[in-house]
Design goal:
Length: 356
């Protein structure tokens, strides 16, 4: 009986979850979530199968998903699929520098040296002029931000700082309106302009942190890109809520203080939720489901796994490192609880999809 109820709940959840997305994108995210859950639970063969299924649903898979699939298939020594992933990554100009030292990659190279030398990426076309423009905007965005404390800026420097932010944001908005969101298929993954995430995205983050004082509201443009499959839903949620500006999608950030990782709000567990928390979590689950994101409980599971297995790219900005005053830290600790992957995974059950 419990299995029947669980199946029904998950079916209803899946139907409700992806109502804002095209059918092929719905299927893509469903398969990606299955792959990630299989990866987290140690079933790499199932993960490989679901990544393969996802890539059949979307002509241009997101970089992070191809990357995770490649790691999975290379470790399984499933070279047929690993070579397909490798070619996709290579033709997006990924340079593999962050995984070259891993044994699984060295062995993949040994087995497939001839193939790797013959990969043809002549059909890949990127807008290099746009990439240079974005790099320039990102560089200007960091002007004065490299200082130890922005509060030390004098009046003239602060004027320049604020003007730069406004000009950069408006320029980026015009670029997105003209070209769409600059993603891996538009400007490539050249590692000089990419450091885990596109550097220009810092402009969006800084605008979001300004709240109601921001010069440009990027959310409608990025939301449209998510619906069109041009931007990964996880990246959208992370950019909109970086530095806890809001908690409409990523309700449970992992927090790292000076004594290590990780703290999380106690309301991750239902017994700590009052009526207000229940409503906020229900709202967050609804907003997540509308863009194909998995449940909050599974999202936390993926973050914790990513913290222990950082070579994978499951969750962007999955951990917040905070430096707080003693009073702020004490207040945070009162509302939080220590959490780690092993303990949370032991308690985790798919019924968490429906625990409010």
């Amino acid at each position: 009986m419990r299995k029947i109820q669980l199946t029904l709940c998950l079916t209803l959840f899946a139907i409700f979850s992806y109502c804002q997305l095209p059918e092929n994108l719905q299927k893509y995210y469903i398969s990606i979530d299955k792959a990630e859950y299989a990866l987290v639970t140690g079933n790499k063969k199932t993960a490989s199968d679901n990544y393969y299924q996802a890539f059949n649903e979307k002509e241009s898979p997101f970089f992070e998903d191809i990357y995770n699939s490649f790691l999975t298939n290379a470790e399984l020594q499933n070279d047929e699929r690993a070579k397909q992933d490798y070619q996709k990554l290579k033709c997006l100009q990924y340079d593999f520098s962050e995984i070259r030292a891993f044994v699984f990659f060295e062995k993949f190279q040994e087995r497939n040296k001839s193939f790797m030398e013959q990969v043809d990426c002549t059909k890949s076309k990127f807008n290099y002029k746009l990439r240079r423009t974005l790099d320039s905007l990102a560089q200007w965005d960091q002007m004065y931000r490299n200082r130890d404390n922005l509060q030390n800026l004098n009046i003239e420097q602060r004027k320049i700082f604020l003007k730069n932010d406004s000009v950069n944001a408006i320029a980026l908005k015009k670029i997105i309106e003209k070209y769409g969101v600059p993603n891996e298929y538009l400007i490539g993954m050249n590692n000089s302009s990419l450091s885990a995430h596109f550097k220009y995205q810092a402009i969006i983050i800084h605008q979001q942190k300004m709240g109601k004082y921001k010069n440009v509201d990027f959310e409608p443009l990025l939301y449209k890109a998510v619906q069109e499959g041009k931007m990964r839903n996880k990246d959208f949620a992370a950019l909109m809520e970086f530095a806890f500006v809001r908690k409409e999608y990523n309700y449970f950030p992992l927090i790292m203080l000076n004594d290590g990782c990780c703290l999380i709000n106690k309301s991750i567990y239902p017994e700590y939720r009052d009526q207000q928390k229940k409503q906020e979590i229900q709202t967050a689950e609804k907003k997540r489901s509308e863009i194909g994101l998995t449940s909050l409980s599974r999202n936390v599971l993926y973050k914790l796994y990513n913290d222990e297995n950082p070579k994978y790219k499951l969750e962007p900005f999955y951990k917040a490192i905070l430096s707080l005053s003693r009073e702020e830290e004490n207040n945070l600790r009162k509302k939080s609880i220590k959490i780690n992957f092993e303990d949370y995974f032991r308690q985790y059950d798919d019924k968490n999809y429906n625990r409010k």
